[in-house]
Amino acid sequence: MENKKQSYFAWWVFIASCLISLVGFGLIVNTIGLFFEPISKSFNASRANVALMTTFQNAAAAITLLFAGKVMAKFNLRWLLTGCFAIIGLSMLSLTQAHSLVHFYIAWTIIGICQPIAITLSIPVLLGNWFNEKLGTVMGIALGVSAFGGTVFNPIIGGVITKAGWRNGFVCEALLILLILVPTAFFLQAKPNEKHLAYGEKQVKKEEKIENSGFTLKQALHKPVFYALAFAMLALQFVSGTVQHISGHIVNIGLPLTTGATVVSGVMLGAAAGKISIGFFLDRFNARVVLFFYSLFGLLGWGGQILLHNSAQLVASAFVLGLGQGVCLVALPYLIRQEFGAKDYSNILSVINMLGAFAMSASVYLVGLFFDQTGSYNLGWTINAIAYIASFVALVLTLKKQNAKS
């Protein structure tokens, strides 16, 4: 009973993580594709050159991930997150005054530097610190909220862009970041202490023992599963980056931008269901079986985007491929924690995410380039389907049997 009273702060961290996911992933990451076409027309630039701003963003994020885990372990996480969200919001606001693509490249590079600490790593690190039980479930819910954010924000931002222009779209995004995420970060507590214990821990000594258990990054580098997880992150983050082109794909096959926004919302809704459910199942069932079904969802969903042309069918296909995104954003951080423990979790997660960030930065530009060369997104969607097959095989061959729950 005493432990329950002392563990309530873990649930505030969970709520804060949900808000970071909702606005951080749901708005900053998942709506940028809506700006590609109007910016392209405004500056008379190719789709690939416009998409290059997210390539700079993700490349900067990948470089930052080299040391982000160490920075988060060394400095006060509350102030780090507060500062990062403030910089992201102000950078977004500055785009309302952009008069060349160079401004976009600079602003999104700055956002990319802040993104690993503020968004990519903060949620799994915070939840890993505060939940020693039900980690898969709370991580799945928190990261799943990002898809609800995408579902809500895509039509809103799409509507603002359509009615008031892309500059006002950035005003809307900046205000949401500054008014929601900056205060949320300011009131966070990064780690449990004697007064506020982690969920599932009855004694501080036991908790400290768990914090110090596991492998260092140097030790992890000698295990085959590290490279399987790194490959899976690389392949599936490539897939995640291409989602930004889905609205462009829908317009390219002759349907309106509003339909494109609805299809993207279908992806986000599917991702919400996928991320929430995969965390629940990973806490309870054999990891290999769970990965099989969610990888199959990814394969079928991207195949549908190639073959289908009906609006309702495309939304359904988008929902299915969204389910598959749970592998990348929930299963991989969860499995990294399960395989290597808490000892050097933020650093190991940071390094593996670095590879994914490089893949994402390349994918946005490459798929835009494929489109410019072929007039179609089908080559990119085919690569995505293959990525799910290859990553599943790599993980199944290397995961330890302890992850096979009965």
From TrEMBL:
InterPro entries xref list: MFS, MFS_dom, MFS_trans_sf, Proton-linked_MCT
Top-level division of the source organism's lineage: Bacteria
Membrane topology: Multi-pass membrane protein
Chain ranges of the Major facilitator superfamily (MFS) profile domain: 14-402
SUPFAM superfamilies (alphabetical): MFS general substrate transporter
Keywords, in A-Z order: Membrane, Transmembrane, Transmembrane helix, Transport
Segments passing through the bilayer: 12-36, 48-67, 79-99, 105-127, 139-162, 168-188, 225-247, 253-273, 285-308, 314-336, 348-371, 377-399
Compartment(s) of residence: Cell membrane
CC per GO annotation: plasma membrane
Major site of localization recorded for this protein: membrane
A Gene Ontology molecular function term of the record: transmembrane transporter activity
Protein name: Major facilitator superfamily (MFS) profile domain-containing protein
Organism: Lactobacillus hominis DSM 23910 = CRBIP 24.179
